[in-house]
Amino acid sequence: MASNEASSSSERKEIPSELNLEIKDKVRVLCLHGYRQNGETFKSKLGSFRKFVGKYAEFVFIDAPHKAKPLQEDGEELSDQLSWWFNKDDGSFKGTNKNGPAFGFQVSLKVVEKAWKTRGPFQGLLGFSQGACLVGLICGLAKRKLTSIKPEFAILSSGFISGSLVHKAIYEESIVIPTLHVYGLSDEIIPKEMSKELTNNFKNVEILEHNGGHYFAATAQQKQTYINFFQDRLQEYLENMELQQTSNTVFPDEQDDETNVISSSSQTSGNESE
Questions:
Q1: N or C: which end of the chain has fewer CB within 10 A?
Q2: For this structure, is 187 an active site residue?
Q3: Could you read off the pLDDT of 173-183 as tens digits, one per residue?
């Protein structure tokens, strides 16, 4: 597959032209930053990406609850460098670490669950690096009904399968929601093979490769893939909203039928009481 080329398991639907004129509704996406980032720094790094798809989506950024271990042994913790969990015994995190712990994971899961409930509604999740790993885990937990979060789609940039032992069972079932996986062919922190391995856990997959390293790519080369993906998600959202409204609508004939049933029931009850 060529760099910057997206592949999809299903054909895209075009949003009707009348919807393109004025779209009042947007899908809402909860965003999870990478290791040693925070919500605000991640938001700033996604400036171009958010401009590309701002017509179709709204993004909310939150902070992980744990401070990352200092880079230097005698260094101090920095309040703006955060972590979702730690997978090494020294209280640090490394994506390539295997068979380690997952210190602080449950606390972070509760933070995301709370944000999903109190700052929602949301339709999707987006994550970068450790945040993308967390998104993948949440999708697996949702599939098994082990979390209150119910994503309808996800974007995973520089994602990977968690090497923590307690997470292994979460990957046993395939995820069916639409996902977009973005990774760099020259990423040295999360090698492309790790991101490719993560895609195997999903069935409805689009892949966007870029020639760069460990960052969320958002140049003109990736722009159309992002737009296409969010057009599809918005189309699905609007269709679901329309179906819900239709199912909740009571038409005049149905109202007459209900009135007749109630009237008939009342007469029957009256006859019985006599």
A1: C
A2: yes
A3: 999 999 999 99
